[in-house]
């Protein structure tokens, strides 16, 4: 059975994000094909896709290698998400379905319950599912694709600290869902912008040049409206 290139692409991307392949390391078609049990054809296609996404670069005399993003490139990603997530929420207020609302409300309920109980181990996953569903509710394939790619790349470049008050973070998400349910696009946009700005402060750059799991504060980013110093902002 031929394994599609997008499945191979997902597997390689996941391994890059999780650190299986270090930044700057070579990605040879032969070794990747052997690792994933496929031919070199889907590997070649997957590497082209990952290069277009910024996870892979092609170097002279070395071939495909894991990219080594700069601090500025990492800062740009957070800034783009701070601009695009509010747009997605506004679109969701206009285009969401009842199915989207049901899932969003269910995720908020679970998040609030586990935050109150201090069960923090699942909150990160629930938060990811929440924002993925909110993006899906926008009904914009292009925007969904961009936000999905941003989430992958930010997870690769940043470690995220748990918020000091997770109950407050989930209350913010609940307010976003209420605005989406009412069809209040501007309210959904404003609340999501505030939430994204606070969330940015919990991100710390992963530094492969430092030992262990030490991280550095996220760099300063700015939006088109005002500068935001994201270091030290509570999520």
Tags for this model:
three-stranded antiparallel β-sheet, 9% strand, mainly alpha, 7 strands, 235 residues, two-stranded antiparallel sheet
Structure commentary:
Residues 210-235 have low confidence and may be disordered. Helix content is 62%, strand content 9%. It has helices at residues 5-18, 29-36, 40-53, 71-95, 98-117, 123-136, 141-157, 166-182, 185-200; strands at 56-59, 63-66, 158-160, 203-206, 215-217, 221-222, 227-228. Helix 2 (29-36) crosses helix 3 (40-53), helix 4 (71-95) packs antiparallel against helix 7 (141-157) and helix 5 (98-117) packs antiparallel against helix 8.
Topology:
Layout: H1 5-18, H2 29-36, H3 40-53, E1 56-59, E2 63-66, H4 71-95, H5 98-117, H6 123-136, H7 141-157, E3 158-160, H8 166-182, H9 185-200, E4 203-206, E5 215-217, E6 221-222, E7 227-228
Antiparallel strand pairs: 1-2, 3-4, 4-5, 6-7
Helix pairs in contact: 1-3, 1-7, 2-3, 4-6, 4-7, 4-8, 4-9, 5-6, 5-8, 8-9
Give a short synopsis of this structure.
The protein is mainly alpha-helical and 235 residues long. Helix content is 62%, strand content 9%. A 3-stranded antiparallel β-sheet has the order 3-4-5. Strands 1-2 form a two-stranded antiparallel ribbon. Strands 6-7 form a two-stranded antiparallel sheet.
Please tell me what the overall shape is.
Answer: elongated
Q: For the residues shown, what is the average pLDDT? A: 86
- Compute the CA-based radius of gyration: 19 Å
Give the neighbour order of strands across the main sheet. Answer: 3-4-5
Helicity level, as a percent range?
A: 55-70%
Which regions are unreliable across 5 or more consecutive residues at pLDDT < 50? 210-235
Query: What percentage of the residues does DSSP assign to strands (E)?
Result: 5-15%
**Alpha-beta classification:** mainly alpha
Tally of alpha and pi helices = 9
Taking the sheet with the most strands, its summary is: 3 strands, antiparallel
First-to-last CA distance: 46 Å
Counting DSSP E segments of at least 2 residues, the number of strands comes to 7
Written as H for each helix and E for each strand, in order along the chain, the element string is HHHEEHHHHEHHEEEE
């Amino acid at each position: 059975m031929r394994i599609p290139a997008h499945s191979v692409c997902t597997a390689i991307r996941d391994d890059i994000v999780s650190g299986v392949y270090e930044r700057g390391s070579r990605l040879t078609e032969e070794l990747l094909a052997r690792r994933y049990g496929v031919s070199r054809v889907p590997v070649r296609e997957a590497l082209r896709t990952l290069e277009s996404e910024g996870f892979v670069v092609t170097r002279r005399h070395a071939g495909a290698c894991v990219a080594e993003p700069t601090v500025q490139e990492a800062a740009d990603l957070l800034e783009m998400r701070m601009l695009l997530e509010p747009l997605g929420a506004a679109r969701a207020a206009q285009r969401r379905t009842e199915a989207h609302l049901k899932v969003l409300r269910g995720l908020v309920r679970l998040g609030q319950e586990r935050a109150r109980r201090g069960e923090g181990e699942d909150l990160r996953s629930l938060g990811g599912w929440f924002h993925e569903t909110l993006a899906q509710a926008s009904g914009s394939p292009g925007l969904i694709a961009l936000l999905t790619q941003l989430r992958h790349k930010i997870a690769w470049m940043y470690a995220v600290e748990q918020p000091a008050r997770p109950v407050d973070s989930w209350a913010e998400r609940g307010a976003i869902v209420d605005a989406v349910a009412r069809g209040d696009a501007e309210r959904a946009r404003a609340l999501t912008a505030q939430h994204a700005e606070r969330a940015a402060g919990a991100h710390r750059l992963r530094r492969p040049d430092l030992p262990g799991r030490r991280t550095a504060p996220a760099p300063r980013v700015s939006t088109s409206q005002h500068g935001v110093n994201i270091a030290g902002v509570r999520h």
